[in-house]
Amino acid sequence: MSIVKQSLVGASGQGGDYTINDSLRFRSSASAYLTRTFSTPTDNKKWTFSFWFKRGTLGTVQTILSPALSGNEDQIYFTGASDTFRFYIEGGAQGDAQTVAVFRDPSAWYHMIVVCDTANATATDRAIIYVNGVRQTVTGTNFSLNAVPDINGARLHNLGRYQSGAYYTDGYLTEINFIDGQALAPTDFGEYDANGTWKAKKYTGTYGTNGFYLNGVGVTDQSGNGNNWTNNNLNLSTSTATTYDQMKDTPSLVDEDAGNFCTWNPLRKGANVTVSEGNLKGITSATVAQSVAGTIGMSSGKWYWEVTNQGGSLSYTGIVDSTHDMGTYIGSSSTGSGYAYNTSGQKVGPTSGTVASYGASYTTNDVIGIALDMDAGTLTFYKNNASQGTAFSGITGTWFAAVSGNGVAGKGGIVNFGQRPFAYTPPTGFLKLNTFNLPDSTIEDGSDYFNAVLYTGDNTSNRNIPTGFPGGWTWIKNRNLANSHTLSDVVRGDGKTLFTNATNAEVDYGANGIDLVSDGFDVTHSASNNLFNVSGRTYVAWNWKANGSGSSNTDGSITSTVSVSTTSGFSIVTWTGTGVAATVGHGLGVAPDFIIFKNRTIASTWIVYSSAFASPGTQYLQFNSTLALQTDGTGQFFNSTAATSTVFSVKTNPDVNQNASNYVAYCFSEVEGYSKIGSYTGNGSADGPFIYTGFRPALVIFKLVTVADSWRMYDNKRLGYNANNNVLYPNLSNAEGSVTTHVDLLSNGFKLKSDNNNYNGGTHIYMAFAENPFKNANAR
Questions:
Q1: What distance in Å separates the CA atoms of residue 290 and residue 271, rounded to the nearest whole number?
Q2: Between 2.60.120.200, 3.40.50.360, 1.10.580.10, 3.90.180.10, what CATH number should domain 23-235 receive?
Q3: How many Cβ atoms are within 10 Å of 39's Cβ, its own excluded?
Q4: Which of 190, 201, 620, 715 is the most exposed place for a label (fewest CB within 10 A)?
Q5: Using alpha carbons only, how large is the chain's radius of gyration in Å?
Q6: How far apart are CA 10 and CA 133, in angstroms?
Q7: What's the CA gap between 759 and 757, in Å, rounded?
């Protein structure tokens, strides 16, 4: 069945009207948790537990809810190294449900629901886990019929720890609803907004005897039942302390003072940095230079945050770019840039550890204010509210808050981006760093312009596959068999097909090919064509919106036909070659960052141009092969000229400009919050680099360019959850790859999880397209 967009629910169909204003931070380092003794329940076999959670420390066992018993306690918890979510009773002997999906996104919020209904006649419905409104695939043992869990029994319960005093939660909890006596649906607690993003919804039903509601403000039950909790080690009184645990970090876009806040990013840190306390404390754990960066990139606007220094001397605070090596201190990387103010009073950076005199020295517990003005390109530091003056100017690009230590364990800092009260008043006009304050994306729902859809073949003719927008460019791959990748577009016309894994000229299947229609595309099965709709075969189609069949473009020396969406930075360009150096108009209005070329008339290689190459215009890749990045010394492809805001250049190679041959080019330019094209350098570790895109990816395509290797692509639909994103290869006809753990798709980028050099060794180029911009995205 084709899946276009999750349905919108709720009375208005819009969602997002209800906001959550506060959360509680649970610090495992403080052994922080809550307790309450439940009474005789309404129904111990049937209950629903709903909560929103933002992860702090990853890779450790963290119990959310468990009763106080000795041995084989029931648990609802995040597992250890696997980062799955699990609910079991009697140590799993009477029931065990563990998600296949993993939850390794520390940058955004998850909505988790556990439904217990052991009297249900359907065994698989006795324990259900939902995440962000989606029922999860689980492994384990079906819960025994009429089993009586200890959770919701008349006994002491822990919120935030296991009874034995271990497995404390580290992260943020809010909108905690426990419903005694009812097995409820996700729509009782959440709904999709107009952009298809899962948002909180106020629960309005009854709670039952043991039911309670904690709204993120203190420990008082707001359900009306009076089922209050006892605080153990949460600091809910000293608002100016670094240990204050009443936070404005929430899953809602509330106002400039509340929303999803930046924290240190445990996915982007040196190997010897320990991040804790809801990811607000970053400290070196060995005698090496190391850094940790923040979760939100800043490319415009004015931003203020504070870092309370830890460890006395040899600490640094400042900013780094996306390629800075986190295995060094800020400003010392040779692969990226950083700017810092260190405890000796020096300013450092942007590369190779360059230092200069700057301001006063500082030490443990001094508060360093950081004011980054990306509109003016300046960076200013404050020591205990005293400005040290402008440290750096001329700053452009995208930057991340950072802290580091230089060669001694125990160095770093505790950060505050505004999720708790600042120690000092920010400079006028400077904002707290949360998603509410990020600029709006011109595209709030990526599926309006790019959408991956799935369908299973049925042998019919003219079968409609809706994509959510008029047909533009459709790329189809059979998932379960080795068949070619097929490309159809609205400019070349219905029935005409190209194959990314082959050099073939264009094939015209006529009525048996793909038709691009007003709501997507139509597929047909015939004896002469088994590519698009064979019964029982599974397919994925990646679709980009264009703008009709195209119009004449005379910007170049060759007149082209262009179908362009300037909003999403995509155009389809066709032209007839001349055999002499020429320019071709692309219609984007800005310089393209990625172009895929194909000669339609003869067998030829697919040629790739990218602004991510070290030398655009004189380097190229082949889309249908494993060839490493090549240098075009004679300029035969792009005439040694980078693309401009109006044209790209072609020379005499038959792959791009043979006389009388027909060509097509697919052109892409970056659009903030929707698409990202760039490069990354692998580290050869299972803890690979984190690539910040500023959105939740719906599709990522990447290739190792330093040596020969295949192209790879991952999307959010084929399995749709992390640890199980299967791979396909644009240059190969191979069926879908088996389950892998190579790539996590996250709310603000993607993370490499393999030490395989094909993913995480050498230099790679990539392009990614959004499901939702980070401003609006929840975690997977």
A1: 8
A2: 2.60.120.200
A3: 13
A4: 201
A5: 27
A6: 13
A7: 5
